Please model this.
Amino acid sequence: MSSASQANEHVAHHFESAEQQRQSAQLGMWAFLVTEVMFFSGLFAAYIIYRSLYPEAWTVGSHMLSIGLGGFNTIILLCSSLTMALAVHAAQTDKRGASARWIILTIVLGLAFLGVKMVEYSAKIEHHLVPGAHFHLDPAQELANLQAAGVQVGDHLRHAMETVNTAHVQLFFSLYFAITGLHALHMIIGIGVMIWLLKTTIEGRYSSAYINPVEVSGLYWHFVDIVWIFLFPLLYLVGRH
Amino acid sequence: MSEASTNATATAAPKSYLDDGSTIRSWLLTIDHKRIAILYLISITIFFALGAFAAAAFRLELLTPQGDFLSAETYNKFFTMHGIVMIFFFLLPSIPAVMGNFLIPIMIGAKDMAFPRLNLLSWYVFMAGAGLAISAIIAGGVDTGWTFYTPYSSMYANSHVILAVTGAFIAGFSSIMTGLNIIVTVQKMRAPGLTWFRLPLFVWSMYATSLVVLLGTPVVAISLAMIFVERFLGFGIFDPALGGDPVLFQHIFWFYSHPAVYIMILPSMGVISEVIACFSRRRVYGYTFVAFSSLAIAVIGFFVWGHHMFVSGQSAYAGVIFSFLTFFVAIPTAIKIINWIMTMHKGSISFDAPMLYAFGFLGLFLVGGLTGLFLSTMATDVHLHDTYFVVSHFHYVMVGGGVMGFFAALHYWWPKMMGRMYPEGWAKFAAIVIFIGFNLTFLPQFQMGYHGMPRRYHAYAPEFQIMHVMSTAGASVMGAGYLTMFSYLIWSLFKGKKASANPWDSRGLEWETACPPPTHNFLETPVVTQDAYSFDLPSVTCVLEKKDKPEEHRV
Amino acid sequence: MKSVFSLLPEQASTVAGQVDAIYLFLVAVSIFCMIFAGLLVLVFSIRYRRRAGVESEQPHEDSRLEIFAGVCMLVLLMTLFGWGAKVYFHSVRPPADAMEIMVTGKQWMWKLQHPQGKREINELHVPVGRPIQLTMTSEDVIHSFFIPAFRIKQDVLPGRYTRLWFEATKVGKYHLFCAEYCGTEHSMMGGWVTVMTPADYERWLGGEVAPIAGAPQETPAQLGEKLFAQLGCTACHSGAPGSLGPDLAGLPGSTVKFTDGTQAVADDDYLRESILDAQTHIVEGYLPVMPVFRGTVNEDQVIQLIAYIKSLSGGAH
Ligand code: HEA
Ligand code: HEA
Ligand code: CUA
Ligand SMILES: [Cu+2]
Model:
């Protein structure tokens, strides 16, 4: 038993050393992220099965999503991963002020993502694309709208629009809302964690000797971003060809 | 080893964890893994009583073929509550959250779990989940069966499905927190000298269990969340009218719930390894095989879920693959059973109550496992699926295996947890009564199952009555056994003989500290110098005491 | 009726004996394992019980026993698997000449319809010695059609057809149960299967045994024909050259090509889907103009329409 580690006030009573504590925290977060992967995997399984059953509904569904907003959000999240990484780096090098600033930026980007998501959701609600009794989709009308707007409608899309069963498009939207909703919930939790991290950073709890919470929260934030990196192509792009 | 020396050091030791604070607050806000284990023990005892009450009620109903005691609706609500409470709120947390929590840090020479606050949080989350599920019962009950099959659960049932589903969902997170804690604790907090192959087999099996928890629980959580979305938000996911597939729910559900049965049995298997070794005074035969068979069961268990769905309308070829893979789980299980029996060979066997429960486990789990083979053989399962044969199979494995293992553990480590001995004579008596009652309850169910008695039947064809009467009689005997056990355990808390640090003269770090242990388990981090189950060597304390000054090491 | 204490329940179908053979084998294996394990435990308990002055002996690491046991188990288990799968495949593949009876499950009753038009509820009358195929669907939740004496069972799903077949071997009356939990009256959702001699069956069909009050005596195909006209299907599917929709004669069982290049065999599920949601697959050379009939026709009517379409090809039963 080393007396040096005991001198470190950050080592909790039940750990032998700062190193043991750090490794435990990291392993714990990785294990947690594995459970998160499994959590999303149930929804992805449903997604894959229904997509293989009803490809044309997926084509139509992904055309109803706004690729501009989705792409914009992807960029926002990529940036937030960068700011998060910088926040961790700053904390590691004992730059408390810089760390706090990067965390603030991360929070702002996270909120921006949610804001854009809200715009997207409300557009879907106005469009009666929320599954359930009020769901309404007229593929012929949509096709006409697209053409009127001067969009180049490919054969693939035209065919899908002509033959799609709108019930199956409802399935697409059920999964769209379930998956993006779950992801948004993770973002909200992530922002909560960031606010706590900001507070504790400003209080000066972290130094190069002890930054476990910063590192571990960073891992979580990156994970939530990565989930979106999968969601964006699966929901917005795959059906488009 | 000399008892006197242990007692001498024990008196010099700091207060035991039980005496370290007696206010309610000191219990409800504790981050001591041992106290959290006790909180869990109290909670699951209450839930077991609730589940048993439901069982008693519907067993009484089944005395007569017509549904005259309970209405059909009440009957359905009762077996649903019985299933949900027994599985999610009793058996799943039983050994992992009580025994695992209490013992793992001590067994590996750590002061606490890796994340003590997460540990306490897991209990609160568990209670919140249980609270929701119970509020569903108070609000009027749920009648979907514990399997929540769609579209019945999501579109047709008129009962409080949402509350129950949310409760089970939340309880899942509590399991995840415990599992996470166990993995990290075992991986990162072992005492110096405690290599993987010196670990007690209980720790190995808890590690394997936790892997299953981490990989499986989130999947059932999401399947329950999908029911929530479909029922509450009205988004069709499994709705056949939208082209959705109700069988998809069954796939996702069983992807977790089959591995979950190993969450219920692996910890018991770990306990049986400890108990048989201790009461045979012999190292477990084929230690490495037993250790790795836990991992093998955990891994293979993830690829067999479709055996619950042979007649569900999944493709016949999928069924064949699932049947094929299912048979492979039997091999590591059989190896364990053989190795336990071989552990007794050339041992020095005594028949204390924990050992009697271990014998009960061996016999009943063997029957349960073998009848599992009847169900994984496709041709026979077509006939047996959803009959009482299945009901009996899973009670043999879950009660005969899971619960007997829990009782063995409870008796074996009772002195360690409570610092008091239970009355041995009464304990043996209860063990025998429970064993007899159990067989009387469930053996007739195999027979009526093969004769075609479907499960979840409130009223049934009159020719099955005689078997049902035997079954209810058995349940009453078993109930008497449970009540006896409950009574003497409570009695022993106040009047039991004070336990010495190592009443069974066993091996393992948990027996190297006082009974009950002090708050941080050991005064100094122990150093491990020998393999698990070294019954040919004196217990570690003595070795260390000879080497160094005793007070520098541990209590 | 056999007593529940007898080892085996009544055997009344061709597969029952095969299933029972596996069952008996399994019982024998289980009893052998239990006796073997029980004896070992008993002998060790006596021989190695704790006695003063006698110490236990520690085991050596040695993997021969485990490997031997593992290999023995593997052989036994693969035998079981193979045998079980063989009987299973036999029991799920209906012979081509099976008589087809349509079954619809709903909370909480079974509705059955014979090819000759006779309908019944919670009762099934079948001739002995003739393969029978049940084509089943549900109007609401999942049910399961279970006849213990025949050792057969199959879940009945909404939105799909599942099949079950059997050949009864013994005249008598047997239980019919719903085996999948389906709500409050799940335990009441059942009745009887009556196996009759072919002559009795013909007489029963002819109505000497009183039919269910008010049930029409027309065959499903005849009912389907009426519906076909009523719903206006004839407008497009008259078979005349130049009609909007394809000629349906000869369709069942053939391979259909779609506009998106894929193709499928026109089985019952395909026909059902084409009628309810014509838009899902568009037949090559046609336009997506056929209306959606989901909500307009119920499962029974779909079954009748299918029966009619099959009868157009002549080969139908
Ligand atoms: C603790 C829980 C538990 C355990 C351990 C098991 C273990 C097994 N179960 Fe069970 N099972 C359940 C709990 C469990 N089960 C539950 C709850 C259900 C029903 C759920 C519901 O529908 O509500 C179920 C249902 C169920 C089904 C579906 C039945 C149906 O609904 O149609 C099947 C089918 O294959 C099955 C198979 C098996 C198999 C092959 C094992 C194997 O793991 C068993 C392996 C063990 C052995 C094979 C014994 C080996 C030993 C020897 C061979 C001894 C040799 C030694 C000597 C001779 C000395 N189980
Ligand atoms: C850990 C899990 C666990 C445990 C411990 C038990 C314990 C028991 N179970 Fe249960 N059981 C399940 C898990 C469990 N069960 C599950 C998952 C289902 C499926 C649910 C579903 O279909 O969804 C099920 C279903 C189930 C059924 C089938 C119901 C049906 O399909 O219609 C039956 C029938 O006998 C039964 C009986 C019993 C009995 C007698 C006990 C006994 O061990 C309980 C003993 C206790 C008492 C009997 C009460 C205390 C005694 C007294 C107060 C004395 C007086 C007693 C009498 C007068 C009878 N259980
Ligand atoms: Cu229909 Cu049970
Ligand atoms: Cu299983």
About this structure: The CA atoms of residues 73 and 118 of chain A lie 11 Å apart. The two ends of chain A are 62 Å apart (CA to CA). DSSP finds nine helices and no strands in chain A. The pocket of copper (II) ion (ligand 4) is lined by residues B 258, 261, 307-308 (CB under 6 Å).
